[in-house]
Amino acid sequence: MRCAGTLSLTTLxxxxxxxxxxxxxxxxxxDPLPAGAVQRLGxxxxxxxxxxxxxxxxxxxxxxxxxxxxxxDLARGERLESLPLxxxxxxxxxxxxxxxxxxxxxxxxxxxxxxEQRRELHRFPANQPGFTRPTGHSxxxxxxxxxxxxxxxxxxxPPSLKEFDLASGRxxxxxxxxxxxxxxxxxxxFFTHGIYAPDGKTAFVVGGYDYCAxxxxxxxxxxxxxxxxxxxxxxxxxxxxxxxxxVGSRSYASEWQIxxxxxxxxxxxxxxxVAYCHDPDQILTGTxxxxxxxxxxxxxxxxxxxxxxYLPGETARFVTRLRVSPDGKYVLAYGRGMVTESDLATGExxxxxxxxATSVEAVALLPDGRRVVSGSSDGTIRLWDAxxxxxxxxxxxxxxxxxxxxxxVCASPDGDTIASGDYNGIIRxxxxxxxxxIRKLEGHSGYIRALHYTADGRxxxxxxxxxxxxxxxxxxxxxxxxxxxxxxxxxxxxxxPDGTQVATAGRDETVRLWDLAKAEQLRKLEGHRSWVCGVxxxxxxxxxxxxxxxxxxxxxxxxxxxLSEMDQGARVQSLVVAADGTxxxxxxxxxxxxxxxxxxxxxxxxxxxHRGAVTALALSPDGSMxxxxxxxxxxxxxxxxxxx
Length: 644
Description:
By secondary structure, the chain is mainly beta. The protein has a domain at 47-125: Thrombin, subunit H. Helix content is 2%, strand content 52%. The chain has a four-stranded antiparallel β-sheet. Strands 2-3-4-5 form a four-stranded antiparallel β-sheet, with no helix packed on it. The protein is elongated and about 85 Å long.
């Protein structure tokens, strides 16, 4: 309970915040915050569903997201402006040689746009349906001719290659490609990318199955050759001397001599994205497992590789697009919803921020009410200052070479220790003083879903996908109690106020109460109609749970009866209950946080601003500050209204 006449540390935080943040709040980097938020931990810069990117001749970056084009100062990592260009998502962005004009696809149209005049110059229909690849991007492409008077376009299903006069939009050539890339097995074909040969008289197209590349005469429409047997090619580019082509496919990258269509080299590993470096003897590939590799094209050996897009447990980590900077020093790459610019000499990002690279899966507030700890699928734990947004410490994977996803965190009552759980079922405790590993607890299998210390810090409660909850003592590497009974993973746990009972919630749609001393189940609470993802005690006799069925339920602990229900309106993934038991906050799939008055079952507020689902919540002891974690790789700090 809150003591009258006493200012908590969290209240002091909010008073200080009011002097720092103006009415239009901005985060540490100067980016605007959603209403009600007072800080962002991490950043969403250059993260999003970018459909195309390119360099301007002066080195600035162009990033297309939805119907808008963003112009970036890549050296500083700052977005300079956002321009509405299209009616739908911009595809296949190309820049004229002098940087004054842009060419792209907008729905079924080809559009040329003046960057200098900020207006549309030409628009005409290509009449080519697109094919959406497994990576989520349309296969329709567009390319300038070498003299920039014509346009080459490809379409997906049925596959077609067309050429247009840019000024008039008149169709010059249309090639039905339904049989162009089909081999002996007769697999259905599609085109993903087409480019002009340096002389502008022929074109190369990739895509399809069996035969994945073809060469066409643009004067007659005749197929000159088809080559590269395999499965699904994504991208093709010419060497600087115009004598070789580089093709990126699902299985590997390959380089070909145009004269005679001789394969010169094959570069192992699935490589959707490819590019030539300014050094004529080096190439780049972006792989299916999230790496960027720089190769010696003659020997086929990897010179250097770096990883920017790995997410444990996922299969689609394609790096689909690579662009080398005009000065040849950097590469702009897209993969897994993120654009990065890396130094080709070192692999390091040119502009970097203190931020998680991928989704934030867990969050906890330290007892001082100012510091926040987060765990991410990028394999790091971060400690933040909630007032300034500064990253105070980063704890990397304790086992170099291994990849972790931290999916649960909690802080000890004295604020000296962090407990973390990963997707391998391992719990680790770290010192907040220096980030060192204190101990490693093994016994669970599957993801660790939640962790909680007792008020005295002497015991740690955990639950996991193996269907159990476990209690660990401070002086033992073995659990002192194992609570087993759920049919499926246990997704949430909570201590009773007196620490004698434990509540668990699971995939089997039940909430269960346990006697801790006997490690025996006291009661099974049934009423949810899907996974129960959150649970917490409002007081000694009242329990609150929330789940994927969009419902929040209040239970009588003694009888097991439902006292009341609340409809969240979306799948709940996280639930926190205020220390005084009057309110609860829930969030999940729609990214909206809802505050509930538990006695009346009424909403007391909603907060939104994340670009993805909310994965975890942490509430200050006095209920005045909330921290949310999200799939968008950031956390938001919220100021909460207080009861009258």
